[in-house]
Amino acid sequence: MSEPIIQCVPNFSEGRRPEVVQAIVGAVSATPGVRLVDWSSDTDHNRMVVTFVGPPAPVAAAAKAAAGAAVRHISLTEHHGVHPRLGAIDVLPFVPIKNITMEECARLATQLGAEIAEDLQLPVFLYEFASTGRRALPDVRRGAFSEITPDYGPSSPHPTAGAVVVGARGPLIAYNVNLSTPDIRAAKTIARELRADGAAGFVGVRALGLALESRGLSQVSINVVHPESVSLYALFSYIARRAEELGTKAVESEVIGALPGFSAYGLIRDAIAATRIKPGQVLWENWPT
After folding, report:
1. Would the keyword Nucleus be found if you checked this record's keyword annotation (predicted)?
2. Is 45 a catalytic residue?
3. 288: pLDDT strictly greater than 90
4. Is the Cβ–Cβ distance between 178 and 251 less than 8 Å?
5. All domains of the chain, ordered by start, with CATH?
6. Most exposed: 98, 110, 135, 278, by fewest CB within 10 Å?
7. Pairing verdict, β 124-128 and 164-168
8. How far is 274 from 289, CA to CA, in rounded Å?
9. Beta bridge mates, 178
10. Which is nearest to 68 in space by CA: 105, 31, 110?
């Protein structure tokens, strides 16, 4: 059997200072045995997301190095951004990719959480498969330090770095659709309709309506937590239609981090009705440089 491969997708509360962004990305890329897949940052969110893959031990080492860089360079006392956050390194999930189980990823998350708490004096909340009862991330955000006590580390927030949520989960798509208006009312309406208890009928979709002041736009910010059940094409089509009905337009969208392969092929299939397309028909090797 070939070696196990996992994905790590930590989110950090920094999107405005290039030197801090590069310090965090550099901590990951300097770790032997890890492949940096993608990173992105956003000024309005004041947030960055880094995606990397590799065997468990190097990935855990890279995640710990990045957490250390975040604690050194980010202070929530000076942080302003539209995205909800709990800490400097806000959320740190492990995702099984190949030759590894979810249970093994959960054990790795638990072990790393304990190490981060000890070494960085950072409160650690476990979530999803690493937690008892599979706590969801929004529930941890709402209940941290009031209804939910940290699983590891201090019982109160770090004075500058807050806390971190560490866990193991399945594939997730972070997907944003920007609307042409700075008025967030349409974005909030659409987000409410998209959520699991909303009117749009999508399964496993979390959504917020946010303002992008630096660009004069608003945004429907989405996490698709069951990507196997949601067509991105159908999701964008719904948002575009509702935006028109609410007097605005969907002007662009973006995927944050990596897109699961089956979702990418599903997008091609749905957009051009290519119902029989197969993975082998896409040759990544001849991607234009």
Report:
1. no
2. no
3. no
4. yes
5. 5-168 (3.30.990.10), 173-280 (3.30.70.670)
6. 278
7. parallel
8. 26
9. 219, 252
10. 31
